[in-house]
Amino acid sequence: MEIKKDILWRVYLIYFIVCLFGVAIISKICFIQFSEGDKWRAQADNFSTKYFDIEAVRGNIYDANGSLLATSLPYFEVGMDVNTEAITKDIFYDNVDSLSLCLSNLFKDRSQKEYKRFLVKARKDGDRWIVLQKDVSYTDLQKIKKFPILRKGKNRGGFVFLQTNKRERPFQFLAARTIGKLNENGTGKPYGLEMAFDSVLLGKSGHRLMQKIAGNVWRPINDDNEVDPEDGNDIVSTIDINVQDVAENSLMNALKKHNADHGCLVLMEIKTGEVKAIANLKKGKDSSYVENLNYAVGVATVPGSTIKLASMIALMEDFNMKLDEMVDIGDGTCIYYNRKVSDAERPEKSNLSALEVFEHSSNVGVTKLITRHYAGDPQKFIDRLYKMNLNSSLNIDIPGEAVPYFKNTEDKTWSQISLQWISHGYESRITPLQILNFYSAVVNNGKMMRPMFVKEIRKRGSAIKIFEPEVINPSICSQASVDKAKKMMEAVVLNGTGKGLKGSSYTIAGKTGTAQMGLVNGKMTYQASFVGYFPADNPKYTCIVVVSAPSGDVYYGGSVAGPVFKDVADKVYSTSLEIHKEINSIQPKYAVKAPSIKSGYQPEIENVLTSLKVKNYSNDKKEDWVSTSAIDSASIKLASKNIDETLRRGIVPDLIGMSAKDILFLLENNNYMRVNLIGSGAVSAQSLAAGTSYVKGTKIELTLL
């Protein structure tokens, strides 16, 4: 009996403990479920779902006339969930052949059989997400949406696509180093305007909720983004792509002709400091020339004879030197502390005026004039160079500017010949852009401007910030010195080392430069340059051309760099009507005849017609885009084309009579349609009739006459 009670007591105890343990488990489950449920569900979601950043569309970079220099084009990664519940076994195997054929015909990277094996294997392996293709264009995406199975969409067809943006430069290598790029895929350093204005162009990223599925693959949960990205702002550069094209071609032809190692060219507007063209070319391994380094901005070298202008202005400012001050150059050689200075050619006469010293680029003449006045106080000469900002960086928009270097008398490397060597272009370093900016300041009556590369920032086509020209130094020298300097630079082209640049239509002034750069394989290499301005009687532009290491016996600045300057100046002058002299300033007494004018942007058309004093009438002043027609011989009617509203409704507008520039802005910039242009002028025919429906990305062919 006692044994039975003992057994029962133990059984009850164990039962009680088990019950107590069960109650504890149930209590904990209830506590987790109801009290901490939200916490643990959130943690579970964090393991299976995650927000991913959606890249914003980067802003565009335009040239001064509105041409696209850099833009972001949408590309897509196309994938498929081959095991989604909606795709039954019958649906999959009934359509896999046709789907494989469509994919093969579109991408041409695999055969139909290879695509079928790929899809079938993924189906059998239970894959929930496979990538069909990367870097798919918007047009191809629209085609894929019509493929078998995929046309059913995400839920019923397992079709998923993710958008990415790729940066493109429509003009390829033109101004490539100046436009620049970012650090793509972790390779290379960012540079150019893309880097300098990254925060402006970048925009704000959006967010999309993604879910982790089998195979550690993330796929979007919803068709739309949870937070849409905000596109970046656009920037308008000072570059004129037409002038840029001329500059690069002219420079490249010269580099090829002289088999040079590299070269650069910069064209600048004098009054504003706007850089209209900047070319940098380097010979590659295959002997072709590419833009791989911004020599004009980032490489400081000895300036050679182009620095002689600064030396002569220093003499004018500090000692009021006259252009007729004489100096004896002997046979074109002289010795300073056992170091010889010599001129390129033996002079025709030994006594030269200061003007003749400059126009013939006499090294001996310049060093003797500098020694005559500054030998007792060489620091005074250096101080004058500093006052002309030659030792200061320009702090331009583009990163990577090299720092100029002009040593002073306290420098450890200063020697007894430093004064003479600096005065004619050695023992110093300066970039082509910095020396050009100095010349621009002299021609601009002593006012030094900061070089400009960007004119404004735009948001959705409207300017939100305009960059005004900025003065670095209001007066680097006196007006008297400016007038003398202009006479010297004009003399270089009229009678001196740059006389090959003389033209009949307009005048050029400037300075040639030839610098010894050191021995390469036992042979001396040279740097040829020319820096000047045009038209000389009414200066509008300055330009510098530098050609490094030309091969052969021709290496002087006037022979190598001068022709490039002349070629660019000729083309710029011929297309810049504002710097041409008026042929006839007398206004005709008869009425102005209405010109033939393209359809286009109403405010611009009205502005032109008003300037020409042509009567014009509009039926809708608020409409942006209008067609034009003659009312009579002296007046024009502007009629609304209603283009913006038509495009928004998915209807092809009437484009007849419009220019290619306006059409590209309307259709491609807003991703309405892809445009193929044939010919030039105004649109005379369009492949898609006005009034028909279209989908975004549709291709339209326009014939221009």
If helices are DSSP runs of H or I spanning 4 or more residues, what is the number of helices?
23
How many separate domains make up the residues?
Answer: 3
CATH fold descriptor of the largest domain: Beta-lactamase
Q: Tell me about the biggest sheet?
A: 7 strands, mixed
Tell me, rounded to a whole number, the average pLDDT.
86
CATH architectural arrangement of the largest domain: 3-Layer(aba) Sandwich
Query: Which descriptor suits the 3D outline?
Result: extended
Say how many strands there are.
31
What is the CA-CA span between the terminal residues?
A: 120 Å
| Percent of residues in beta strands | 25-35%
Helix content: 25-40%
Radius of gyration: 36 Å
Low-confidence stretches: 585-591
Name the CATH superfamily assignment of the largest domain: DD-peptidase/beta-lactamase superfamily
Which secondary-structure class do the elements indicate?
alpha+beta
CATH class of the largest domain: Alpha Beta
